[in-house]
Protein backbone atom coordinates (compact mmCIF):
# COMPACT_ATOMS: atom_id res chain seq x y z
CA UNK A 1 0.00 0.00 0.00
CA UNK A 2 1.24 3.52 -0.71
CA UNK A 3 1.28 4.63 2.92
CA UNK A 4 3.07 1.62 4.45
CA UNK A 5 6.52 1.76 6.03
CA UNK A 6 9.09 1.12 3.32
CA UNK A 7 12.77 0.14 3.51
CA UNK A 8 15.35 2.81 2.65
CA UNK A 9 16.92 3.14 -0.76
CA UNK A 10 20.21 1.18 -0.72
CA UNK A 11 23.57 2.91 -0.91
CA UNK A 12 25.33 0.23 -2.98
CA UNK A 13 23.71 0.91 -6.38
CA UNK A 14 24.74 3.36 -9.08
CA UNK A 15 22.78 6.62 -8.94
CA UNK A 16 22.92 9.81 -10.97
CA UNK A 17 22.88 13.10 -9.04
CA UNK A 18 20.27 15.69 -9.92
CA UNK A 19 20.18 19.36 -9.04
CA UNK A 20 17.69 20.18 -6.28
CA UNK A 21 15.60 23.18 -7.31
CA UNK A 22 13.63 25.16 -4.72
CA UNK A 23 10.17 25.86 -6.12
CA UNK A 24 9.55 28.79 -3.80
CA UNK A 25 12.77 30.44 -4.98
CA UNK A 26 12.12 30.05 -8.71
CA UNK A 27 8.54 31.21 -8.18
CA UNK A 28 9.94 34.35 -6.54
CA UNK A 29 12.35 34.89 -9.43
CA UNK A 30 15.56 34.18 -7.53
CA UNK A 31 18.23 34.62 -10.22
CA UNK A 32 20.66 31.99 -8.94
CA UNK A 33 17.94 29.36 -8.58
CA UNK A 34 16.48 30.19 -11.99
CA UNK A 35 19.95 29.71 -13.52
CA UNK A 36 20.24 26.33 -11.79
CA UNK A 37 16.87 25.28 -13.24
CA UNK A 38 18.07 26.34 -16.70
CA UNK A 39 21.24 24.27 -16.21
CA UNK A 40 19.21 21.19 -15.32
CA UNK A 41 16.73 21.66 -18.17
CA UNK A 42 19.44 22.07 -20.81
CA UNK A 43 21.81 19.30 -19.70
CA UNK A 44 20.04 16.17 -18.45
CA UNK A 45 16.45 17.49 -18.48
CA UNK A 46 15.74 16.11 -14.98
CA UNK A 47 15.81 17.77 -11.56
CA UNK A 48 14.45 17.41 -8.05
CA UNK A 49 11.87 19.99 -6.96
CA UNK A 50 11.50 20.80 -3.26
CA UNK A 51 9.04 23.08 -1.45
CA UNK A 52 6.42 22.43 -4.11
CA UNK A 53 3.62 22.45 -1.55
CA UNK A 54 1.86 19.37 -2.93
CA UNK A 55 2.57 16.78 -0.22
CA UNK A 56 -1.04 16.58 0.97
CA UNK A 57 -2.41 16.32 -2.57
CA UNK A 58 0.17 13.64 -3.38
CA UNK A 59 -0.75 11.56 -0.32
CA UNK A 60 -4.43 11.72 -1.17
CA UNK A 61 -3.74 10.78 -4.80
CA UNK A 62 -1.87 7.68 -3.66
CA UNK A 63 -4.89 6.79 -1.51
CA UNK A 64 -7.15 7.23 -4.54
CA UNK A 65 -4.89 4.96 -6.57
CA UNK A 66 -4.95 2.24 -3.92
CA UNK A 67 -8.73 2.43 -3.65
CA UNK A 68 -9.08 2.19 -7.41
CA UNK A 69 -6.64 -0.69 -7.95
CA UNK A 70 -8.50 -2.61 -5.22
CA UNK A 71 -11.65 -2.69 -7.35
CA UNK A 72 -12.52 -5.97 -9.10
CA UNK A 73 -10.46 -6.42 -12.25
CA UNK A 74 -13.60 -6.89 -14.34
CA UNK A 75 -14.88 -3.49 -13.17
CA UNK A 76 -11.58 -1.78 -13.96
CA UNK A 77 -11.56 -3.27 -17.44
CA UNK A 78 -14.81 -1.50 -18.27
CA UNK A 79 -12.74 1.71 -18.07
CA UNK A 80 -9.75 0.37 -20.06
CA UNK A 81 -8.06 2.93 -22.31
CA UNK A 82 -8.43 0.75 -25.41
CA UNK A 83 -6.31 0.34 -28.54
CA UNK A 84 -7.24 3.45 -30.52
CA UNK A 85 -4.60 5.81 -29.13
CA UNK A 86 -6.52 7.25 -26.19
CA UNK A 87 -4.51 7.50 -22.98
CA UNK A 88 -7.24 8.33 -20.45
CA UNK A 89 -8.59 5.42 -18.40
CA UNK A 90 -7.25 2.21 -16.85
CA UNK A 91 -4.35 0.23 -18.34
CA UNK A 92 -3.89 -3.34 -17.21
CA UNK A 93 -0.45 -4.92 -16.76
CA UNK A 94 0.74 -6.51 -19.99
CA UNK A 95 -1.25 -4.25 -22.32
CA UNK A 96 1.85 -2.47 -23.68
CA UNK A 97 5.11 -3.57 -25.28
CA UNK A 98 8.28 -2.26 -23.68
CA UNK A 99 10.67 -2.99 -26.56
CA UNK A 100 10.90 -3.91 -30.24
CA UNK A 101 10.70 -7.63 -29.38
CA UNK A 102 7.23 -7.16 -27.89
CA UNK A 103 8.15 -7.85 -24.26
CA UNK A 104 5.13 -7.01 -22.10
CA UNK A 105 5.08 -4.34 -19.40
CA UNK A 106 4.29 -5.26 -15.79
CA UNK A 107 2.59 -2.09 -14.52
CA UNK A 108 -1.06 -1.15 -14.20
CA UNK A 109 -2.06 2.47 -14.06
CA UNK A 110 -4.96 4.86 -14.13
CA UNK A 111 -4.87 8.06 -16.21
CA UNK A 112 -7.35 10.84 -15.48
CA UNK A 113 -7.63 13.68 -17.98
CA UNK A 114 -6.97 17.15 -16.66
CA UNK A 115 -9.95 18.32 -18.71
CA UNK A 116 -12.26 15.77 -17.08
CA UNK A 117 -10.94 16.51 -13.58
CA UNK A 118 -11.44 20.26 -13.85
CA UNK A 119 -14.84 20.06 -15.59
CA UNK A 120 -16.36 17.40 -13.30
CA UNK A 121 -19.20 16.39 -13.19
CA UNK A 122 -19.32 17.39 -16.86
CA UNK A 123 -17.66 14.70 -19.00
CA UNK A 124 -15.15 15.97 -21.57
CA UNK A 125 -13.36 12.79 -22.71
CA UNK A 126 -14.62 9.77 -20.77
CA UNK A 127 -16.03 8.39 -17.51
CA UNK A 128 -14.03 6.77 -14.69
CA UNK A 129 -14.43 4.20 -11.87
CA UNK A 130 -16.55 5.09 -8.84
CA UNK A 131 -13.47 5.51 -6.62
CA UNK A 132 -12.17 8.16 -9.02
CA UNK A 133 -15.46 10.03 -9.19
CA UNK A 134 -15.64 10.10 -5.39
CA UNK A 135 -12.32 11.93 -5.25
CA UNK A 136 -12.48 13.94 -8.48
CA UNK A 137 -13.27 17.31 -6.89
CA UNK A 138 -11.43 17.03 -3.55
CA UNK A 139 -8.32 15.04 -4.62
CA UNK A 140 -7.71 14.78 -8.36
CA UNK A 141 -8.66 18.33 -9.35
CA UNK A 142 -6.47 19.90 -6.60
CA UNK A 143 -3.49 17.76 -7.62
CA UNK A 144 -4.07 18.68 -11.27
CA UNK A 145 -4.17 22.38 -10.39
CA UNK A 146 -0.94 22.04 -8.42
CA UNK A 147 0.72 20.29 -11.37
CA UNK A 148 -0.42 23.08 -13.68
CA UNK A 149 0.79 25.77 -11.27
CA UNK A 150 4.26 24.23 -11.15
CA UNK A 151 4.26 23.81 -14.92
CA UNK A 152 3.38 27.42 -15.69
CA UNK A 153 6.06 28.74 -13.34
CA UNK A 154 8.66 26.55 -15.08
CA UNK A 155 7.33 27.33 -18.58
CA UNK A 156 7.55 31.09 -18.05
CA UNK A 157 11.13 30.82 -16.79
CA UNK A 158 12.19 28.65 -19.75
CA UNK A 159 10.28 30.96 -22.11
CA UNK A 160 12.37 33.96 -21.03
CA UNK A 161 15.64 32.02 -21.07
CA UNK A 162 14.90 30.93 -24.65
CA UNK A 163 14.37 34.54 -25.69
CA UNK A 164 10.76 33.95 -26.69
CA UNK A 165 8.11 36.71 -26.56
CA UNK A 166 6.38 36.81 -23.19
CA UNK A 167 3.75 34.11 -22.76
CA UNK A 168 4.69 32.08 -25.85
CA UNK A 169 5.11 28.71 -24.13
CA UNK A 170 2.16 29.32 -21.84
CA UNK A 171 -0.05 30.06 -24.87
CA UNK A 172 0.91 26.69 -26.35
CA UNK A 173 -0.51 25.14 -23.16
CA UNK A 174 -3.64 27.29 -22.98
CA UNK A 175 -6.01 26.10 -20.26
CA UNK A 176 -8.89 26.91 -22.57
CA UNK A 177 -7.92 24.22 -25.07
CA UNK A 178 -8.36 20.49 -24.49
CA UNK A 179 -5.11 18.58 -24.24
CA UNK A 180 -3.53 15.28 -23.32
CA UNK A 181 -2.55 16.59 -19.87
CA UNK A 182 -3.35 13.98 -17.24
CA UNK A 183 -2.66 12.53 -13.83
CA UNK A 184 -1.31 8.98 -13.68
CA UNK A 185 -1.23 6.70 -10.65
CA UNK A 186 0.94 3.62 -11.25
CA UNK A 187 1.24 0.31 -9.40
CA UNK A 188 4.04 -2.16 -10.06
CA UNK A 189 3.78 -5.45 -8.15
CA UNK A 190 6.65 -6.83 -6.05
CA UNK A 191 9.23 -8.90 -7.89
CA UNK A 192 8.36 -12.58 -7.41
CA UNK A 193 11.42 -14.17 -8.98
CA UNK A 194 14.95 -12.84 -9.30
CA UNK A 195 15.01 -13.04 -13.10
CA UNK A 196 11.96 -10.78 -13.34
CA UNK A 197 13.94 -7.97 -11.72
CA UNK A 198 16.04 -7.72 -14.90
CA UNK A 199 13.03 -6.95 -17.12
CA UNK A 200 12.01 -3.25 -17.20
CA UNK A 201 8.51 -2.52 -15.96
CA UNK A 202 8.38 0.39 -18.44
CA UNK A 203 10.77 0.37 -21.37
CA UNK A 204 13.28 3.05 -22.31
CA UNK A 205 11.46 6.14 -23.53
CA UNK A 206 11.22 9.89 -23.59
CA UNK A 207 8.06 11.49 -22.22
CA UNK A 208 5.37 12.52 -24.71
CA UNK A 209 4.53 16.00 -23.52
CA UNK A 210 6.14 19.10 -22.04
CA UNK A 211 6.76 18.62 -18.32
CA UNK A 212 6.37 15.71 -15.91
CA UNK A 213 5.83 16.25 -12.16
CA UNK A 214 6.68 12.86 -10.60
CA UNK A 215 6.38 11.48 -7.07
CA UNK A 216 8.02 8.17 -6.08
CA UNK A 217 8.24 6.37 -2.75
CA UNK A 218 10.58 3.59 -3.90
CA UNK A 219 13.47 3.43 -6.33
CA UNK A 220 13.06 2.11 -9.85
CA UNK A 221 13.36 5.19 -12.07
CA UNK A 222 16.55 5.06 -14.11
CA UNK A 223 18.08 7.58 -16.53
CA UNK A 224 20.64 7.26 -19.29
CA UNK A 225 22.37 10.64 -19.18
CA UNK A 226 23.69 12.06 -22.46
CA UNK A 227 27.12 10.59 -23.21
CA UNK A 228 26.66 7.70 -20.75
CA UNK A 229 26.41 4.02 -21.66
CA UNK A 230 25.07 2.65 -18.36
CA UNK A 231 21.74 3.22 -16.66
CA UNK A 232 21.68 4.91 -13.25
CA UNK A 233 18.95 5.03 -10.62
CA UNK A 234 17.43 8.29 -9.48
CA UNK A 235 17.35 8.17 -5.70
CA UNK A 236 13.89 9.10 -4.35
CA UNK A 237 14.06 11.87 -1.73
CA UNK A 238 11.05 12.27 0.60
CA UNK A 239 9.09 15.44 -0.09
CA UNK A 240 10.92 16.05 -3.37
CA UNK A 241 9.29 15.66 -6.77
CA UNK A 242 11.28 14.67 -9.83
CA UNK A 243 10.58 16.90 -12.83
CA UNK A 244 11.64 16.28 -16.40
CA UNK A 245 11.34 17.82 -19.84
CA UNK A 246 9.31 15.96 -22.49
CA UNK A 247 9.39 15.78 -26.28
CA UNK A 248 7.16 18.79 -26.90
CA UNK A 249 9.37 21.29 -25.06
CA UNK A 250 12.46 19.80 -26.64
CA UNK A 251 10.96 20.27 -30.10
CA UNK A 252 9.64 23.78 -29.41
CA UNK A 253 13.12 24.78 -28.20
CA UNK A 254 15.02 23.27 -31.13
CA UNK A 255 16.66 20.76 -28.82
CA UNK A 256 17.94 23.35 -26.34
CA UNK A 257 15.76 21.76 -23.65
CA UNK A 258 16.60 18.11 -23.12
CA UNK A 259 13.98 15.35 -23.29
CA UNK A 260 16.09 12.56 -21.88
CA UNK A 261 15.65 8.82 -22.14
CA UNK A 262 14.59 6.96 -19.00
CA UNK A 263 12.91 3.74 -17.88
CA UNK A 264 11.41 2.01 -14.85
CA UNK A 265 12.88 -1.20 -13.45
CA UNK A 266 12.36 -3.12 -10.22
CA UNK A 267 13.36 -1.19 -7.10
CA UNK A 268 16.88 -2.05 -5.93
CA UNK A 269 17.70 -4.41 -3.06
CA UNK A 270 15.04 -5.26 -0.50
CA UNK A 271 12.77 -2.56 -1.94
CA UNK A 272 11.99 -4.99 -4.79
CA UNK A 273 9.89 -7.02 -2.35
CA UNK A 274 7.33 -4.21 -2.07
CA UNK A 275 4.68 -2.79 -4.35
CA UNK A 276 6.05 0.24 -6.16
CA UNK A 277 3.63 3.16 -6.44
CA UNK A 278 4.30 6.33 -8.36
CA UNK A 279 2.28 9.36 -9.32
CA UNK A 280 2.72 11.84 -12.16
CA UNK A 281 1.09 14.92 -13.56
CA UNK A 282 1.91 15.18 -17.26
CA UNK A 283 1.47 18.59 -18.89
CA UNK A 284 1.03 18.44 -22.66
CA UNK A 285 0.39 21.20 -25.23
CA UNK A 286 -3.07 22.03 -26.51
CA UNK A 287 -4.31 19.34 -28.90
CA UNK A 288 -4.11 21.57 -32.00
CA UNK A 289 -0.59 22.86 -31.38
CA UNK A 290 1.96 21.74 -33.99
CA UNK A 291 5.20 20.34 -32.59
CA UNK A 292 7.97 22.29 -34.29
CA UNK A 293 10.93 24.48 -33.36
CA UNK A 294 9.92 28.10 -32.75
CA UNK A 295 12.71 29.43 -34.95
CA UNK A 296 10.80 32.55 -36.04
CA UNK A 297 10.34 33.66 -32.44
CA UNK A 298 13.80 33.18 -30.94
CA UNK A 299 17.32 33.59 -32.33
CA UNK A 300 18.51 31.20 -29.61
CA UNK A 301 16.23 28.47 -30.98
CA UNK A 302 17.06 29.35 -34.60
CA UNK A 303 20.80 29.08 -33.89
CA UNK A 304 20.32 25.75 -32.08
CA UNK A 305 18.45 24.29 -35.06
CA UNK A 306 21.16 25.43 -37.49
CA UNK A 307 23.71 23.52 -35.43
CA UNK A 308 21.70 20.31 -35.75
CA UNK A 309 21.11 19.75 -39.49
CA UNK A 310 20.79 16.01 -38.78
CA UNK A 311 17.70 16.57 -36.62
CA UNK A 312 14.16 17.12 -37.87
CA UNK A 313 12.44 19.75 -35.76
CA UNK A 314 9.49 20.02 -38.17
CA UNK A 315 7.35 17.05 -37.15
CA UNK A 316 4.26 18.12 -39.09
CA UNK A 317 2.32 16.61 -36.20
CA UNK A 318 -0.08 18.20 -33.76
CA UNK A 319 0.28 17.46 -30.08
CA UNK A 320 -2.83 15.25 -30.21
CA UNK A 321 -1.51 13.29 -33.20
CA UNK A 322 1.95 12.82 -31.66
CA UNK A 323 0.46 11.59 -28.40
CA UNK A 324 -2.07 9.22 -30.02
CA UNK A 325 0.59 7.71 -32.30
CA UNK A 326 2.85 6.91 -29.39
CA UNK A 327 0.07 5.45 -27.24
CA UNK A 328 -1.50 3.40 -30.05
CA UNK A 329 1.71 1.78 -31.25
CA UNK A 330 2.76 0.71 -27.75
CA UNK A 331 -0.41 -1.36 -27.34
CA UNK A 332 0.37 -5.05 -27.73
CA UNK A 333 -2.94 -5.66 -29.51
CA UNK A 334 -1.76 -3.34 -32.28
CA UNK A 335 1.64 -5.01 -32.67
CA UNK A 336 2.53 -6.31 -36.13
CA UNK A 337 6.26 -6.52 -35.50
CA UNK A 338 9.30 -4.40 -34.54
CA UNK A 339 8.07 -1.69 -36.91
CA UNK A 340 5.06 -1.08 -34.64
CA UNK A 341 7.37 -0.34 -31.73
CA UNK A 342 9.43 1.97 -33.95
CA UNK A 343 6.28 3.96 -34.76
CA UNK A 344 5.69 4.51 -31.02
CA UNK A 345 8.97 6.32 -30.51
CA UNK A 346 9.46 10.01 -29.79
CA UNK A 347 12.71 12.00 -29.72
CA UNK A 348 14.82 9.13 -28.35
CA UNK A 349 18.29 9.10 -29.91
CA UNK A 350 19.33 5.65 -28.70
CA UNK A 351 16.74 3.16 -30.01
CA UNK A 352 19.15 0.24 -29.57
CA UNK A 353 19.55 0.80 -25.83
CA UNK A 354 18.43 -2.21 -23.75
TrEMBL record:
Coiled coil: none
Family annotation (Pfam families): 2OG-FeII_Oxy, DIOX_N
InterPro entries in alphabetical order: DIOX_N (IPR026992), IPNS-like_FE2OG_OXY (IPR044861), IPNS-like_sf (IPR027443), Iron_ascorbate_oxido_reductase (IPR050231), Oxoglu/Fe-dep_dioxygenase_dom (IPR005123)
UniProt-listed SUPFAM superfamilies: Clavaminate synthase-like
Keyword Cell inner membrane carried by entry: no
Fe2OG dioxygenase domain mapped to chain residues: 179-285
Transmembrane segments: none
UniProt keyword list: Iron, Metal-binding, Oxidoreductase
Keyword Metal-binding attached: yes
GO molecular function, one term: metal ion binding
Gene3D superfamilies reported for this sequence: B-lactam Antibiotic, Isopenicillin N Synthase, Chain
Protein family per UniProt: Belongs to the iron/ascorbate-dependent oxidoreductase family.
PANTHER family: 2-OXOGLUTARATE (2OG) AND FE(II)-DEPENDENT OXYGENASE SUPERFAMILY PROTEIN-RELATED
Name of this protein: Fe2OG dioxygenase domain-containing protein
Species of provenance: Suillus fuscotomentosus
